């Protein structure tokens, strides 16, 4: 038994060593990726369910890795956060998204917003980063409300001092704020009234089984009623079927995003799509 225990232990450390090595390699690759501009933003339309218009798109990070091909955030965000490189990447994401918002607004001749995801790591830094963003937005002559900052519920559960400060800074800049993955955290409801948030994004896990699970439907309906009473707009994410879409419309949901409309796509493709109304 002792032997087995030792064996298990050595497997364990081998695994940990392998994981640490992989992490180190990804970190090195990430540094190269920043320097060599291997990142891209893909965009997924967010549709206003009252008007059918594509009002906004979420910017989703992709890494065109020279050997491993196109990588999704799940493959590298953890390493980027652990190594702190996420700060540089996040800076690039914001500027790139702001440029794109400006471009689309000029081409479309109407307001168009872009949502950008924020890592909690970015939120814990000082105000300097975001002051630079403010200047960037000013230089572009971009209306600050063109940018929606997406933060996760997890963040609001942390020590809220710095988080409140950062959120206040975003709002003072005129940016909008969306609370992502809503419903997956715990006891966040009580915090809702203390944070100045513009959009709630109902997590995909509640949307997925909307047609089959009357409990999920009741939850979505409840969230929408509550959000509206608090003056928030609701975005349903991960909407894949027309049935889900119709249930959400009937429940008074304001926006939807998901494969039912489109997968995330490169900007050129998104440009073509913004010209027309959404298909459904
Ligand atoms: P998220 O913010 O919840 O983004 C939504 C994810 O759901 C995206 O995955 C999107 O491709 C996927 N999705 C959209 N519609 C559907 C659908 O109908 N069905 C299904 N099954 N999935 C759908 P993606 O692009 O792999 O991004 C994963 C996560 O990585 C994001 O989750 C976000 O938390 C993070 N992320 C993405 N871009 C950035 C970034 O620029 N910075 C940071 N810090 N995190 C990012
Ligand atoms: Ca998001
Ligand atoms: Ca989400
Ligand atoms: Ca999610």
UniProtKB/TrEMBL annotation:
<protein>
    <submittedName>
        <fullName>EAL domain-containing protein</fullName>
    </submittedName>
</protein>
<feature type="domain" description="EAL">
    <location>
        <begin position="23"/>
        <end position="278"/>
    </location>
</feature>
